[in-house]
Amino acid sequence: MGRISTFRSYQFVLLLAATLAVVAFYYFGSERHNFSSTTKRIKQTQASSNRNDADLTVDTRIQLAESGDRDLGAGSEGFGLRVGDMTTVDQRYHALMMFTKVDRSRSLQDKFRVAMLSMVKHGRFLEGEVLVLHFVSDQASQELGQRMLQEFLQDASFEYEIFFHDVVELTHELFPIVEAMQKHFSAGSGAYYSDSIFFLSVAMHHIMPESLTRIVQLDLDLKYRTNIRDLFQEFDRFPPGAVMGIAREMQPVYRHTFWQYRKENPNTRVGEPPPDGLPGFNSGVMLLDLSSMRASALYNQLLKPDNVAKLADQYRFRGHLGDQDFFTMIGMEHPELFHSLACGWNRQLCTWWRDHGYGDVFQLYYRCDGPVYIYHGNCNSPIPDD
Q: Where do the TM regions start and end (predicted)?
């Protein structure tokens, strides 16, 4: 009986040790890997896919980013899928998308699918380059986004990293900077664009760490028809003093919004169509040179509440499209701050204003000659099939 008792005690100790080991694995593992449940599947996918001669012997796990230049402040959670030799990584291309309330909207989920799959389809980067995708998100949307990205990025031929930024914490940081302009460029209290987060691009140079010098901000309702890496080459075309690359608005929205100023100044170019007019900007695709934004005394002066109010009064301006309105207004006064992207980099498809009083002039704004690199299905417009 004594031997049996001793044996059972020994079994109990082994069982307890095994249980504690399992608990420790899941507890500590969950602290390091949000994507850990799919690691095996991703490794299998990578092993069977063509990765443009990447070294697939490396452990391709989604993991916490560890490099110092990826310290993106409070509210940021980063993960990266590594393909190839990590020691060769020397250049990152940063792109940011707003990803809030996606869990509640099938339409946004469908748009995100189109955007990511087309980005992956055409995306090509050189050895040692990484596409870093930033998503500003609420918790529920982040959880959904992580699951969706596992599917959408599984055929990517390039290295990438993923960061999720907490929308509440970013909004808290932004509010003191952009509070004054919200009353000029928001649709009203509680409206979609009245939230401070939709002025993120205006003050991103204050929010992101100084180690982050360039970033592209992209809407979700895009479809890529070319390598997104080519978009980043537009930074090299910025004229001296420019802080941002952005395409013109392709509807007569600012012909309408500046109606009072245009009435008082009948010879103005404000709100007139291209090529000689100033039709305003569309914020669906933006290249933000954060270093230049930090260094530009002019741009930072324009962010001050008194100067925002002065320009809004001068142009009799009251908008509802957030950062797009702010950039349009200061662009009327200081076009030297902007590098004008070809319309093909943000080929907007919305035709709402054609049927709301501007049919006679609509085509003057909507026309876009030359190749289309990115379709923008704004105002829920259908995007052409390939």
A: 12-29
Phi-psi region of 265 (alpha: psi -120 to 50; beta: other; left: phi over 0): beta
The chain-wide mean pLDDT, for the chain, equals 82
Question: What does the pLDDT read at residue 180?
Answer: 82
pLDDT digits (tens, 9 = 90+) for 321-339: 889 999 999 999 999 999 9
Q: Are 100 and 197 in contact, with CB atoms under 8 Å apart?
A: yes
How is residue 345 annotated by DSSP? G
H-state helical runs in the chain: 2-32, 39-47, 106-122, 139-152, 167-185, 200-207, 228-232, 253-257, 259-264, 290-295, 297-302, 305-314, 323-333, 362-366
Sheet holding 62-64, edge to edge: 62-64, 76-81, 159-166, 129-137, 91-99, 214-218, 281-289, 244-248, 338-340
Q: How far apart are the first and last CA of the chain?
A: 78
Q: Cα dihedral sign for 235, 240, 243, 244?
A: negative
C-alpha 274/C-alpha 248 separation (Å) is 9
